[in-house]
Design a protein that fits this description.
Helix content: 25-40%
CATH class of the largest domain: Alpha Beta
Structural class: alpha+beta
CATH architecture of the largest domain: 2-Layer Sandwich
Shape: globular
Strand content: 25-35%
Number of helices: 15
CATH superfamily of the largest domain: Bira Bifunctional Protein, Domain 2
Length: about 575
RNA sequence: CGGGGCGUAGCGCAGCCUGGCUAGCGCGUCUGCUUUGGGAGCAGAAGGUCGCCAGUUCGAAUCUGGCCGCCCCGACCA
């Protein structure tokens, strides 16, 4: 492609509404343009990268034995009512009616549809296992789209679904996908971590996320610097204190005034007591019933853990009225002392704490020197908090590390959740009807692009991994009006095209500086410069985007070098 | 949805507080000439419902109200 003819609108200035590097560079390098919040137009350069990624995904999925299909983005709401997920997804789903009043939605994911298909088409164990996938646009009415293409309302996803006769067979299908994902992300040139994850709306018990570490990521994950432990932060187990140290002489419980101090921070400041020496009493309602939870002042309640414990995800903070009913006191001064007729669920650490500060269930009053056992009863002790950076690794005890990451892929063992609900059964060897055991596997295609840029750029622009670069080579003709320069450039351009090497030719009649800046910005791996060196010594300069070295070679030699370099990465 | 911020030419911004003539600046764009190894120079030109609607006023980009859009933080979301 000649740059003079290409729609590659680069920007010198950083757009004001782009916060993170990948978003800024995707706009500046002319990959995307925003249509509205959460939807983007992919320009030629962006679309080329997208296609590169898609091709890699497709080849690895096919290699793993998965078969490509295409399901509609428009789906009947009926199927979602059957699975019970319409309510669960709630506002996240775009809904609409057709002219007859039939309820439809734009698919945020496709478990319902694939299960429907398999229900009708798979009837025998002889047809299993099977893995079907598609690369398709998903729609999610996100509360807050952000960071460009990282969280958008419309995005491209590769989603695969496996069906097996039993869990043992599912383990194999799962591993196959897990390995395929590693190959896909390796080929995309990404550095990533695989972490244990929460299954959320998908359901199922086992899942792993593929995370690209980046400060721009929306997810936090935990890794151990010593062993191989890696987990999403919400899943990381906190170690119970094995041998709680009781203070030798607990102080007497005492009520003291804390006017207007309704938060841990305010009380901590007022009483000059560190948050870690306080206990917060949280009242939630789970399926409408109030629960009382105790967490150390400097810790955070982990709703996922609480949900697992209570067996529901319908957990919301109690309103002021419920709090009054439960504690007899106003919001902001709740405490465990004197609570009746309600079980107190405490985080593991509470048991070992002594002489701590907590609410007195009366306005403007807190207790100091509270001690569990003596002053109130803990009904149940559980791991309820979110792990912190000062916690030990649940596996080996080394201090863990917390990092941010971009979730580019997620694999789930679903089990029979959907097959049971939607009736995807098959006849086993004994002629008995069994629900298929499912797995599902997603990759965010757009996120791979953003993650690759987050992973690899410098002050001048993008540095593409070779396998997903929109073009392999860019030829910069310093002064294309010069006949010899044009001639040599044309020769290089033709030679690349003859070898099927993707090449951009900057044939524009503009000053050289712009061309170099542009080439760096759009991040093409190999740059060939035809300029005064060519005129004086009949050589072309070859420079790689990811190195500062530049070599001068005869035009024929340059082509050989380029071919070698491009093939190395295939 | 709660909190904060923004909306003036394709992009980045000034002007608004303290209302007033033809709404500016930089980049980009177009024409011509000179340039061409790291975002060139000169000369000329095009490009604006000042987000929208209403109100106050002799007069509104500027003041007031409503609405819309966009960004950031949060609710923990594949």
């Amino acid at each position: 492609m000649k740059l003079s003819q290409a729609l590659i609108p680069t920007l010198k200035e950083t757009p004001a509404d782009a916060e993170i590097i990948s978003h800024q560079l995707m706009i500046r390098a002319g990959l995307i343009r925003k249509l509205t919040s959460g939807t983007y137009i992919y320009l030629p350069l962006g679309q080329r990268v997208m296609n590169k990624v898609i091709n890699i995904i497709r080849s690895e999925m096919d290699r793993a034995g998965a078969q490509e299909i295409l399901m509609p983005a428009m789906q009947p709401a009926e199927l979602w009512e059957e699975s019970g997920r319409l309510k669960q997804f709630g506002e996240l789903v775009f809904r609409f009616e057709d002219r007859t009043g039939k309820k439809n939605l734009l698919g945020p994911t496709h478990e319902e549809i694939i299960t429907h298909l398999v229900k009708n088409e798979i009837t025998s164990y002889k047809q299993l296992p099977i893995n079907l996938y598609q690369i398709q646009t998903k729609f999610r009415d996100e509360i807050r789209p952000r960071f460009g293409v990282l969280r958008s309302k419309e995005f491209l996803m590769k989603d695969a679904y496996s069906f097996d006769v039993d869990t043992k067979s599912l383990d194999k299908s799962y591993q196959l996908m897990y390995d395929a994902y590693c190959r896909i992300f390796d080929r995309c040139g990404l550095k990533y971590k695989i972490v244990e994850a929460e299954s959320g709306l998908m359901g199922g018990d086992v899942s792993h996320e593929f995370m690209v570490p980046s400060p721009a990521g929306e997810d936090l994950f935990v890794t151990c610097p010593k062993c191989d432990y890696a987990s999403n932060i919400v899943m990381a187990n906190c170690q119970p204190t094995k041998d709680p140290k009781k203070s030798e002489a607990p102080q007497a419980l005492k009520k003291i005034e804390t006017p207007g101090a309704t938060t841990i921070e305010a009380v901590s400041k007022f009483l000059k007591v560190p948050a870690s020496q306080m206990v917060k009493t949280l009242i939630y309602t789970a399926d409408g019933d109030p629960v009382v939870i105790l967490i150390r002042g400097d810790h955070e309640l982990n709703l996922v853990k609480l949900g697992r414990l209570l067996g529901t995800d319908n957990i919301v903070p109690a309103n002021a009225k419920t709090i009054e009913n439960v504690t007899g006191g106003p919001l902001g001064f709740s405490g465990p002392v004197g609570l009746k007729d309600i079980k107190i669920i405490a985080d593991h650490l509470i048991q070992g704490m002594t002489d701590f500060v907590t609410g007195a269930n009366q306005a403007d009053l807190h207790y100091i020197n509270t001690n569990p056992g003596r002053d109130f009863k803990i009904g149940q002790t559980e791991d309820l908090r979110t792990i912190t950076g000062s916690d030990p690794c649940p596996k080996c005890g080394t201090k863990i590390e917390i990092s941010r990451g971009i979730e580019i892929g997620h694999v789930f063992k679903l089990g029979t959740k959907y097959s049971k609900k939607l009736g995807a059964n098959f006849l086993d060897q004994n002629g008995k009807s069994q629900p298929a055991v499912m797995g599902c596997y997603g990759i965010g295609v757009n996120r791979i692009i953003a993650a690759a840029i987050e992973n690899s750029s410098d002050k001048d622009g993008i540095i593409w991994p070779k396998n997903i670069a929109p073009y392999q080579v860019i030829i910069v003709s310093v002064n294309p009006k010069e006949e010899k320069i044009r001639e040599v450039s044309q020769k290089l351009y033709d030679a690349c095209r003859a070898e099927n090497i993707e090449v951009l030719w900057d044939d524009r009649n503009i000053s050289a500086g712009i061309k170099f800046k542009n080439a760096d910005l759009i991040g093409i791996p190999i740059r060939l410069t035809v300029g005064k060196n060519t005129l004086a010594n009949n050589v072309v300069d070859l420079k790689l985007r990811n190195s500062s070295e530049q070599n001068s070679l005869a035009p024929d030699k340059v082509i050989t070098e380029v071919i070698k370099s491009v093939q190395q990465n295939k």
